[in-house]
Amino acid sequence: MGLIKYNTNDYKPTSFKNFMDDFFTDDFKGGSAPSFTPRVDIAETEKEFEVQLHIPGVKKDEINIDLNEKELTISGERKFENEKSEKNFHSVESYFGSFRRSFQLPDSINRDKIDAEYQDGILLVKLPKDAKKSTKKQISIK
After folding, report:
1. What domains sit in the chain, N to C, each tagged with a CATH number?
2. What span, in angstroms and rounded, lies between the C-alpha atoms of 30 and 140?
3. Residue 80 and residue 97 in contact, taking contact as beta carbons nearer than 8 Å
4. Which of 10, 25, 44, 141 is most exposed by smallest CB count within 10 Å?
5. In what helix (H) or strand (E) does residue 17 lie, and over which residues does it extend?
6. Cα torsion for 79, 100, 56, 44, to the nearest 10°?
7. Is 55 helix (H, G, I), strand (E, B) or coil?
8. Cβ atoms 105, 127 nearer than 8 A
């Protein structure tokens, strides 16, 4: 079975010129593959920040978490497991490849108590706040 590009507008036929223009500007033009950028959710409580990175299919030992100065960097790779089988993929919508996400951290983070957990394809990084370095202050009016 081959993939055939078709015109979704029944009232307008596709000309050969339009077909060629669309063909060379489409995602499968032979350029670089789409990059894998995991989705991130960031939440804040009174005591900590939580960074949730959605990386299903990535093994725990293929994830790196680095902390440099005020920057938290999470990187890794999601590999396409091409097992030898009788499967012929007709569609692959999952993204594969290496990824890297960086986040600027506020000064109020307690760097010594950062914790990370990985479960069910979600990496949860907890960034506790340091009570001594609190950036929030109430100012009274005179």
Report:
1. 33-79+95-132 (2.60.40.790)
2. 63
3. no
4. 141
5. helix 16-25
6. 170
7. coil
8. yes
Count other C-beta atoms under 10 Å from residue 129's C-beta: 20
Q: Record the tokens describing residue 74, joined without a space.
A: 């999470």
In 3D space, the residue among 56, 13, 8, 66 whose CA is nearest the CA of residue 36 turns out to be 56
What's the token pair of residue 113?
């108590």
Locate 50 and state its tokens.
């939580």
How many residues are given for the chain?
Answer: 142
Going residue by residue through the chain (142 aa), what tens digit of pLDDT does each one get?
455 555 555 445 556 666 656 555 555 544 445 567 899 999 999 999 999 999 998 899 999 999 998 899 999 988 776 655 667 777 776 777 889 999 999 888 999 999 999 999 999 999 999 877 765 667 788 8
Other CB atoms within 10 A of residue 53 CB: 23
